[in-house]
Amino acid sequence: MGLSESNVTAAVQGGWDKKFDYWYPFIVGGSPDLISVPADSPYDTLQDLVDAVRAAPGSIPAAASGSGSIHHLNLLAIEKGADATFKFVPYKGSAAGQQAAMAGEVALVVTSLAEQAQLIAGGKLRPLAMLTPEDTTFNGATIPSAFGIYDGLDKYLPLKQAIGFAVHNSAPDAVKAVLDEAFGKAMASPVVAEWAKANNYDIGGQSGTEASATFKTLESTFAYTLKELGATSVDPAALGIEKP
């Protein structure tokens, strides 16, 4: 199964009744999230956007993929850290949300740099802020970090992607061993390194016990972050998910 970090929220969202340890995961890597607006947006900075939201809470539509995705979590974190309430509009994936922003259906979109890169380079979207502690240089310009604007963001961010694949944890050890070896060779290859650089990805490369530990931490962090932000339908404690 192909997966990402957002799969760890399925259980607390009521769509799955098992913990993530049902899976044996492999992490390829991920790309940092950012907030962007349509090219013709009246908002020139993140502060402009937040000021508008504060003046009319719940009135400015925002796309951030589906409910419980990392992009949705990042939007919720911005709301909490900046004391602002957007009108969240869920879409079936990042591409649909980005298209909605370009079409003017929403005022902003939260997805990853890898997903937005070509749209930013083509002048269809305009980045306002990275949802990471560091600024990012892209397409000859600096995208500022939202952390430099709102001190409280480090309580909720950064939440990072962990994109890859998994097999059932019940798979035979011999199968896991073959997959571990092949995955390790692939991740060490220059082909993957060149692809990651060209597509704005940070390489992960974890599998087995290490990847499982990473996803366990993600599951706990995401589940209780969503609970704190009022976005869960199932108590993570009821699923046996430990609090971070």
Any low-confidence stretches, pLDDT <50, length ≥5? none
**Biggest pleated-sheet summary:** 5 strands, mixed
3D shape = globular
Q: What is the terminal-to-terminal distance?
A: 27 Å
Order of helices and strands: EEEHEHEHEHEEEEHHEH
Secondary structure: number of strands: 11
Provide a descriptive summary of the structure in words.
The protein is of the alpha+beta class. Helix content is about 35%, strand content about 20%. The protein has seven helices and eleven strands. The strands form three sheets. It has a five-stranded mixed sheet with strand order 5-4-6-3-7. Strand 8 and strand 9 (about 140-145) form a beta hairpin. The chain is globular and about 55 Å long.
Layout of helices and strands, plus pairs?
Elements: E1 2-3, E2 23-30, E3 33-38, H1 46-55, E4 61-63, H2 70-82, E5 87-89, H3 94-103, E6 108-112, H4 113-121, E7 125-130, E8 136-138, E9 141-143, E10 163-168, H5 173-187, H6 190-198, E11 202-207, H7 208-228
Descriptive tags:
single chain, alpha+beta, four-stranded antiparallel sheet, 7 helices
Question: In a nutshell, what does this entry contain?
Answer:
This protein is an alpha+beta fold.
